[in-house]
Amino acid sequence: MLERKLVNVGFDRVVLRDRRPFGLATLARYPIFAPEFLDFVERVVPPDRHDALVYAVDVTATAAT
Predict the structure, then answer these.
(1) Residues 50, 38, 20, CA angle at the centre, nearest 5°?
(2) pTM, entire model
(3) Where are the domains of the chain?
(4) What tens digit of pLDDT does each residue of 10-65 get?
(5) Is residue 54 helix, strand or coil?
(6) Contact status, residue 13 vs residue 61, Cβ threshold 8 Å
(7) Cα–Cα distance measured from residue 18 to residue 57, given in angstroms and rounded to the nearest whole number
(8) Buried b (16+ CB within 10 A) or exposed e, 21-54
(9) Could you give the 3-state DSSP secondary structure of residue 39?
(10) Alpha-carbon span 23 to 41, nearest angstrom
(11) How far is residue 62's CA from residue 23's CA, in Å, rounded to a whole number?
(12) Torsion angles phi and psi, residue 60, rounded to 5
């Protein structure tokens, strides 16, 4: 889906270089997430998903010429 969106806005070569899961423990290290939010997520998300809530991706794209 990300590749399609990048192509739609003018990138013609899109390479996914890395994809890493981020879990609650990793997110807690970033100051943009309030402790109350992390507590809420911990309560509502099943424990088996706590290690991979979101994914960080490293993408390289070149503009169409």
Answers:
(1) 45
(2) 0.62
(3) 2-63
(4) 888 888 899 999 999 998 998 898 999 999 999 999 999 999 999 999 999 998 76
(5) strand
(6) yes
(7) 6
(8) eeebeebeeeeeeeeeeeeebeeeeeeeeeeeee
(9) helix
(10) 11
(11) 30
(12) -115, 130
